[in-house]
Amino acid sequence: MKSAKGKTSASKFLSLVLRHQPGIIGLQLDKAGWAEIADLIQKASNAGVHLTYAIVRTVVDTSDKQRFSISSDGLRIRANQGHSILVELGLLKTVPPDFLFHGTVKRNLVAIRHQGITKGNRQYVHLSSDENTALETGRRHGYAVVLTVQAGRMSIDGFTFYRAENGVWLTEYVPSKYVSLR
Length: 182
Hints:
Helices cover 31% and strands 20% of the residues. By secondary structure, it is of the alpha+beta class. The chain has a three-stranded antiparallel sheet with strand order 1-3-2. A three-stranded antiparallel sheet has the order 4-7-11. Strands 6-9-8 form a three-stranded antiparallel sheet, with no helix packed on it. Strand 8 and strand 9 (169-171) form a beta hairpin. The model has no long low-confidence stretch (mean pLDDT 92).
C-alpha cells in the first residue's frame, strides 16, 4: 500500500477506506459509517500507510467538497456520502429545490436517455444545487456535460431526496423523463 504523504493522496486513501473498502486495512465502521480515528491511523500504519491525526484533520478541514466529518468529540471520522458499502447516515427526507444538476460525461448520455441516472455501485445518485459543481464533478471523468433534473417534480411524484451534511443532494434513482441536457 502506498504512503498517504500528500493531502490529495491522504484524501483518496480516506475515501477508499471510509466509503468503499474499510476491510482492505481491517477497519470496522459502525452502522452509521463512523470509525475511530486512532483505529484508522493504527490500521493504516499496519498496512504501510502513514497517517497522523494532523493529516486527517487537515484533509477534513481543507476539503473543498467536504467529503468527511469528524465527530463533535474529535474521536471519530466518517464519509458524508458516496458509499458503495451499506451505511445508515441518518439523513432526513428533504424537499429539494425545483431543479438540481448532475455532472457526467458525454459518453453516458445514451444510457441516461434510456435508463435514467442510476446510482451504479453507490447508495445514491449524487446531485448538486449548482451547475458549476456538477460540471466539475463531470470533468473528473472526461468531457463533461451538465444535466438538469426536475427534482421538485420528482418529489411531488413520490421520489425521496436527502441532503448530505456537505450539501450534496441524494436520491436512489432519476428516471430519464425528469432529465434534460443543460
